[in-house]
Amino acid sequence: VLAFILLLRVQYCNLQKKTYRLTVLCVRVALFLPLYAILMFCAVMAPSSYVVMIVLITIVEGYSFYCFFALITTNLGGPAATVDLMYQSQRNLFCSCCCPSESAVFYQKTTWAIFHLFITRSVLSVLSAICFYSNNANGKAGYVILNCISAAMLFYGVICLVNLCKLV
After folding, report:
1. Of 131, 107, 111, 114, whose CA–CA distance to 54 is shortest?
2. What is the pLDDT of residue 92?
3. Can you tell me the distance from the alpha carbon of 129 to that of 82, in angstroms, rounded to the nearest whole number?
4. What residues contact residue 109 under an 8 Å CB cut-off, 6+ apart?
5. DSSP character string of 28-78
6. Is 118 helix (H, G, I), strand (E, B) or coil?
7. CB 58 within 8 A of CB 121
């Protein structure tokens, strides 16, 4: 944590107007690991709070993936430049079964996947925590089903991000 605070301080002191947006996005993406570690440590120290910590971890993961996607898009010159680069690239998709091959459609699907990774998955994790703490059989079944849907969203979002990185 101390090293991370030092890193933030150095980044803040070296800010320039030209690279301000990229620096802020890099710091936001870098926040994922310390926050994840702190939340998992809290879950280990109080095992009954694990499901609540998973809700917070899901929010942190979604925000981190969103910032990473914004960082890539900003580095490439914006959405239009990203789509142009993907169109010019002759590379194949990593997993073409779940992603369309046309550049503009793929970019739009990726933005929706990131939205669902951040917002919808966070809502699902809150609902699954409510189901878990209901302490009945139907609640536990709902918890498992909602977590499976959440895992599928995570898988699809990561596949889209990997494909975006591979194409550009």
Report:
1. 131
2. 65
3. 37
4. 99, 100, 160
5. HHHTHHHHHHHHHHHHHHSGGGHHHHHHHHHHHHHHHHHHHHHHHHHHTTS
6. helix
7. yes
What's the rounded Cα separation, in Å, for the pair 115 and 118?
Answer: 5
The DSSP 8-state label assigned to residue 26 in this structure reads: H
What is the chain's length? 168
Q: Which residue is it, tokens 């917070």? A: 56
Question: What does the alpha-carbon distance between residue 121 and residue 126 come to, in Å, rounded to a whole number?
Answer: 9
Return d(Cα 142, Cα 157) in angstroms, integer.
22
Q: What is the pLDDT of residue 62?
A: 92
Record the tokens describing residue 134, joined without a space.
Answer: 């209901």
Radius of gyration of the chain (CA): 18
Close Cβ partners of 13 (under 8 Å, ≥ 6 residues apart): none
Q: Which residues of the chain have pLDDT under 50?
A: none
Cα distance between residue 64 and residue 112, in whole Å = 15
